[in-house]
Design a protein that fits this description.
With about 150 residues, this protein is of the alpha+beta class. It has one domain: Nuclear Transport Factor 2, Chain: A (Roll). It contains three helices and eight strands, in the order ααββαββββββ. Strands 1, 2, 3, 4, 5, 6, 7 and 8 form an eight-stranded mixed β-sheet that branches. The chain is globular. About 20% of the residues are buried.
């Protein structure tokens, strides 16, 4: 089966986007909101509604994340390598996410919530590198319990 060889420019773009997506996971898991600012464009549109969140412009979603994520003190976003499609200085990424969360309960063992989802992202090349201009999270599975 024939396949095309990636150019060095496309290999570099793929690595930069993978680093960008990893930076997102580090930012949200450590509550580093300044790092999160380096992931999205300032006018990005984000939709987390499928997992019970909000949708709206990045500044509004950033504030919401700052209020909600500290309620889940133990969390870890695990992502798979994205499927990428390029169109000049724009790209689309679908990235699969496994997100276990645990939080202490006053009456015993920790409660947990595990979300499996994917992010559909529209990315743009900026002077600062690749950034997410639009993100839609699509929840596939959710498990809650103790």
């Amino acid at each position: 089966m024939p396949h095309s060889i990636l150019s060095l420019e496309e290999v570099a773009a793929r690595l930069e986007i993978q680093a960008l997506l990893t930076r997102y996971t580090v930012a949200v898991d450590t509550h580093d909101w300044e790092l999160l600012d380096s992931v999205f464009t300032s006018d990005a549109w984000i939709d987390y509604q499928s997992s019970g969140g909000i949708k709206g412009p990045y500044p509004e979603v950033r504030r919401w994340l700052g209020e909600v994520l500290p309620l889940l003190p133990r969390k870890q976003h695990l992502i798979a390598a994205p499927h990428l499609a390029f169109d000049g200085e724009r790209a689309h990424a679908r990235t699969y996410v496994h997100n276990p969360n645990a939080f202490p309960q006053p009456d015993g063992p920790s409660a947990y919530m595990i979300v499996d989802a994917y992010y559909d992202d529209e990315l743009v090349w900026t002077e600062a590198g690749w950034r997410i201009a639009k993100r839609i999270e699509v929840q596939v599975l959710r498990r809650d319990g103790r």
